[in-house]
Amino acid sequence: MLIDASEILKMRDEFFLDNPQLLNPQNDQFRLIAESIPQLVWTANAKGELDYFNERWLKYTGLSLQDSLNPQKRVKIIHPKYLEEAQNKWTESLITKQPYEVEYRLRGADGNYRWFICRAIPIVGKNGKIVRWVGTITDIDESRLNAEKVSRYAAIIESSDDAIISKLLDGTITSWNSGAEKMYGYSEKEAVGKNISMLFPEDRKNELLEILEVLRLGEGIDHYQTQRQKKNGKIIDISVTISPIKDFFGNVIGASTIARDISYYKELERRKDAFIGMASHELKTPLTTLKALTQISQKLVQQDDTKNVKVYLLRINDQINRLIELVNDLLDLSKIESGKLELNKTEFDFNKLLKETIENIAYLSPSRKIIPEGKVKSLIKADRHRLEQVLINLIINALKYSPPNSRISISIGEELSKQSNIPTKIMFKIKDEGIGISSENIKNIFSRFYREAGIDEQTYPGLGIGLYISSEIIRRHGGNIWVESEKGNGSTFYFTLPLK
Amino acid sequence: MAKILIIDDDHGILGAINAILNMENHQVATAENSKYLDSLDDKNTPDLIFLDLYVSGENGKQILKRIKTEEKTSKIPVIMLSAYPNVEAEILEAGADDFIAKPFDMDDLLGKVKKHLK
Fold this sequence. Notes:
The complex is a heterodimer. Chain A is an alpha+beta fold. Chain A has helices at residues 5-18, 28-36, 55-61, 65-69, 71-74, 80-96, 141-159, 178-184, 188-191, 205-216, 263-302, 309-337, 350-361, 384-400, 439-442, 466-476; strands at 40-45, 50-53, 100-107, 113-124, 130-139, 163-168, 173-176, 221-229, 235-246, 252-261, 345-348, 380-383, 408-416, 423-432, 480-485, 491-498. Chain B has a 5-stranded parallel beta sheet with strand order 2-1-3-6-7, with helices on both faces. Chain B has a two-stranded antiparallel ribbon with strand order 4-5. The interface between A and B is medium-sized, with 31 and 28 residues.
């Protein structure tokens, strides 16, 4: 027969009304109970003066009975932080005649504080007035510390950028932190209760089954790189660690997943692979010619037919020079890719640099005269060697891609700042009357070229990686580089550089 | 002694393959893109074609398709070349008669020429 709780309280009140002696600490039966239960027990008289403490209290606090009965001595064992609250609540209970409850830290005999919950109920006598207060003080130290631990963990989980998700063995999502909201785009409300399979892209649905199998065996998965799908359908690269959640008996009841977005690192990896692919392809072209010419020369020498070998040896040397240039370009490119392109800035005369560069290249096309127009009056602070590289690249391209009898014109000048009329930049312009660049290719002209995905894609005939390197050098100086061109109608390359 | 056409956009390679084939007394024509195929007649139709996978922005497989579908050229054996890795399977699947990777060995190349001219 189940009895209502309020019924029990009524029975209790009536019982103590009929048997007030049982609340008297002098009474043996009272003391028997008070000394047996695993709590600290105390009582107070109708005025609220504490008049009894059980053995457990004396043992824990280390106080003598005399000191316990003394309020001044007694309050010393309550941690000062909670003393005021405890006293105020007690005063309130005495006035309102309502049960007393407070959580505080009490100092034990060993000097250490532990958390306790102190409760007291008033016992009402026949005249309706309170005759006694009976109080218990229960040790909640462990559960309190656990509660603090739990809220600390909860805070860590909530503030983590990683997606931390828990799920049941059937895949039902049971928790979803803010990191998961950010990563996948579903709010906590949208995600909890749904199945984790919604995060798996079509081609990875099998993976989910495999994961659940591993979890059922009580094992986890560490730092597994895979892909998931956001709410908006976008696929992201992630690294996951999945751990089984077990119940008290060791049965697996679910799993927790921590996932980190590794898109950035995957992108770096892809760029590195693309670079290696491009470098290897670019290098193989001159090597093909070198190998072929060498083998031909070997055969001819063997046959004593050395008439053409002289020419082939010249070509071999040309190819080797080309290869040297390519290797240097690739090294520059690799430095740029890894952010290590260093600029060695010095102050120098740009006009002089341009003149010297033109003279040095002159031997390539002695018949073509390039006379620059304009002048840069101020000194420029920049990496002279790298700037030379840019000039050589642009001038050689102009020579290469225009007919021998066509004009190449170069003009340079200073740009003044709009506010102060002081020169702040230099302007360089080189115009050729060559084959030009189609509008299709113009947008890619300064990018690294490498065929990315399928073999069926159109390729952009590279002006090599020289232009990409030139554009990086200019940009690293804080300048701009661009081109105006039309297929069949020549090209004009421009760049600006800040003077300092 | 055969007529061989090489389509590749690298001058060095055109010159090198030219030189190799000349040693065997073949008659060689070189082209940097597929335009050469527009002007084929009975006199200059080649007996064998070397074709690179990427030529001046054109996809070699498209050029191959053209060669194999046009009546004038459909019977000509085509050996494709490339410096890209792992392309042999797709090249052969696209209908090329043979494939040679760059850089190649001169005797390998000559061996394939002999094989396909038979």
